[in-house]
Amino acid sequence: MCPWISLLLQGILERLSAGEVVIGDGGFVFALEKRGYVKAGPWTPEATVTHPEAVRQLHREFLRAGSNVMQAFTFYASDDKLENRGQTLRITGAQVNEAACDLAREVASEGDALVAGGVSQTPSYLSCKSETEVKAIFKKQLEVFMKKNVDFLIAEYFEHVEEAEWAVQVLKTSGKPVAASLCIGPEGDMHGISPGECAVRLVKAGAQIVGVNCHFDPMTCVKAVKMMKEGVEKAGLKAHYMVQPLAYHTPDCNCQGFIDLPEFPFGLEPRILTRWDMHKYAREAYKAGIRFIGGCCGFEPYHIRAVAEELASERGIIPPGSEKHGMWGSGLEMHTKPWVRARARRDYWEQLMPASGRPKCPSLSTPEGWGVTKGHADLLQHKEATSTQEMKHVLEMQKKVKTSA
Predict the structure, then answer these.
(1) What is the largest CA-CA distance in the chain?
(2) Looking at domain 12-329, which of 3.20.20.330, 3.40.800.20, 1.25.40.10, 3.30.420.130 is its CATH number?
């Protein structure tokens, strides 16, 4: 049977159970911010309502690059986030989520792709609202996903495993497959709970797919998922595994990842992984037993195309986007300059050490995390815009931290 037909007949769990590679998409929030459709700071996805054509086009580009999961652009689309710190959108979470599901389904139907609806961490949890209150937020989002009949659900971008457990428990009531990915590294969640223990707790909560997304570079994320896999197996449990990392190098990050880097979010470009780095990532993830492989912030369609090309023999599929991309630079054989034609080979790109072009740029940065997490007064959220007094406080704290560093 043609691989495309085979995949179309299967859901996410059937594909993973058969050992097939499922390729996710990339970082819609960062990609659309660069394109002028998302505002850095709130990072909310109202573009599904205000600029649906932009979201639709990005879905299509990832589909063409090889993605076979269209994750609805529902990141941070809970009402408490849409109303946080002075946001006055007059657009509800339900409106955003419904539009996101429609766009994802429209593009998914143009190829071989499943639609995933996702929930993420909430300001309410950081502000120490009760389990009942936080779960009510997830339930409200789930109602839309059920109405739109998404293929599976993802609880993603959680710094605290407890909140992720609550999300999984809510999503599990749908009867649909549930994936859970934490934005953690090998050090564990923000309370120091190890990746292995986090994974066990998520599986026990009802997640059938567990892993990590965002906050760290691909190799760091693969390492964290390996630790999750070890923990689940040691506990005698079973799960599938996923990884959707950053497209940035983060060797200098601490527990909280790239948001602590002084370059976040507007100076990260020098850290971007090349397409050849993505080949290495895809291979390492596959070797680790991870079969749901995608990307998060910084990932563009060409990064996903590199993942799809690296695993083309395992998948039996070449993405449509490869029509305009010679494997390992082979298209350069057509270049007019002979020294560029000489680069049309795999070993050249595998051995290349890219220069930054910035003579005074340090190779590493000093993270600026302040060591606060859920329950600390500095993380309490509110609907009102950030006040002058609050800004004065954070600037004083920043100065204090830098002085003591």
Answers:
(1) 66
(2) 3.20.20.330
Residue 319: which residues within 8 A CB-CB, separation 6 or more?
A: 64, 65, 66, 305, 308, 309
Give, in order, the Cα–Cα distances in Å from 177 to each of 118, 172, 183, 206, 244. Answer: 12, 8, 20, 9, 18
pLDDT higher than threshold 50 for residue 198 = yes
Residue 296 counted as an annotated binding residue: yes
| 255 is annotated as contributing to ligand binding | no
**Residue 114 to residue 261: CA distance in whole angstroms:** 34
Domain residue spans of the chain: 12-329
Give the pTM: 0.91
Residue 172 is predicted with a pLDDT of 98
Closest CA to 75 of 52, 97, 104, 102: 97
pLDDT digits (tens, 9 = 90+) for 339-354: 999 999 999 999 999 9
Q: Is 297 annotated as a binding residue?
A: yes
